[in-house]
Amino acid sequence: MKQVTPGLAGSNSLEGVRNFRSLGGLPAHGGSRVAEGLLYRSGHFGYSTAPDRQRLEAAGLHFMDLRSPWESEAEDRCVPALKTVQTPLQAKDSRDAWLWAAIREGRVSELGRALTAARAEEAMHRLYARDIAGNPSVFASFLQSLARVELPVVVHCSAGKDRTGWAIAILLTILGVPETAILEDYVQSSLPENQYLIRDSAGIVTSIDKHLRTVITPLLEARQGYLEAAWHSVEHAWGSRHSYLEDGLGITPALTNKLKARLLV
């Protein structure tokens, strides 16, 4: 029997956590919908408050973490051990490594000197087309784990929008959620209250002037074109979305039915 997670159903925010929201209630084919209280998505929990952690613990959430081990170590320094299944994504395209490092370390002045908004958007397209869509084994492992992990579950990375955004888009596609509803959920990560906060090495939120805000906005948002870049990439590599799901991710009818049985009502 599917049960609503106590204290979190219908919630879309935690005090110290960005981009946390429930996926319950999204429509699926045949009149089904994603069950309330079983599936969440989020940014990292490194700045969660004591009340946040109490709510998360009370909810009994299991954490599916798409970050690399070094990201987890850096961001979770103040967080007690979580019930985590880790499926880290390793970058394939190294040309933008400096950019992501500068964001994580709060070196925004460096971004202001080296970037334009157009170059930032191009970097995001590369991220989705090469690093995200080009790593099917990570997302195959994620889906296999999701079929086994104890529910309720929260899927997250650092900002909760790119790796998590693609993982959730794939999952919802398998569950039969319409593409319009998938996109509506995805772009919610662009809302100001959901966006990743740039912090310095001490964890202090970094102030950003108008020029820097213009330059880095493409990096902080979840734009429709980014998700489309990932889909175009898999269609080019695999011939179709269906082939990507079946051959790239190993999605079988049995796995599809199991995920639907676990997550839909």
From TrEMBL:
<dbReference type="Pfam" id="PF13350">
    <property type="entry name" value="Y_phosphatase3"/>
</dbReference>
<dbReference type="GO" id="GO:0004721">
    <property type="term" value="F:phosphoprotein phosphatase activity"/>
</dbReference>
<dbReference type="InterPro" id="IPR026893">
    <property type="entry name" value="Tyr/Ser_Pase_IphP-type"/>
</dbReference>
<dbReference type="InterPro" id="IPR000387">
    <property type="entry name" value="Tyr_Pase_dom"/>
</dbReference>
<dbReference type="InterPro" id="IPR016130">
    <property type="entry name" value="Tyr_Pase_AS"/>
</dbReference>
<dbReference type="InterPro" id="IPR029021">
    <property type="entry name" value="Prot-tyrosine_phosphatase-like"/>
</dbReference>
<feature type="domain" description="Tyrosine specific protein phosphatases">
    <location>
        <begin position="137"/>
        <end position="212"/>
    </location>
</feature>
<protein>
    <submittedName>
        <fullName>Tyrosine-protein phosphatase</fullName>
    </submittedName>
</protein>
